[in-house]
Design goal:
By secondary structure, the protein is an alpha+beta fold. It is 34% helix and 14% strand. It is built from five helices and four strands. The longest helix has 10 residues.
Length: 98
């Protein structure tokens, strides 16, 4: 797991990825920009009830699909990420959508 200060992403994103992004409006907005649709999910416990934020839905997570979240991730960066994270080797049952 990796934690980043989502409130400051817009300050460093252009330097790292080559194009600017707007500041995030909320934590849920930040989750909606995570690189893969299956990871763009957050769960919060609120008064003994779970609240789920899944801007891309839960289908890919529940069906074991790794797919690029087009909101912020380029095709090139997604390919790079899938290879460097060794997704296919680490999770051989995951279906990767190129």
């Amino acid at each position: 797991m990796e934690a980043k200060n989502q409130a400051s992403v817009h300050l460093w994103y252009q330097q790292r990825f080559g194009y600017p992004v707007e500041p995030l409006r909320s934590a849920v907005d930040g989750v909606a920009t995570w690189p893969e649709t299956a990871t763009a999910v957050a769960v919060r416990l609120d008064d003994d009830r779970f609240q789920i934020a899944a801007a891309c839905g839960l289908q890919d997570l529940l069906q074991g699909v790794c797919r690029r979240n087009p909101r912020r991730v380029s095709v090139e960066w997604y390919h790079h990420r899938i290879h460097t994270k060794q997704v296919a080797a680490r999770w051989p049952k995951v279906r990767i959508h190129w």
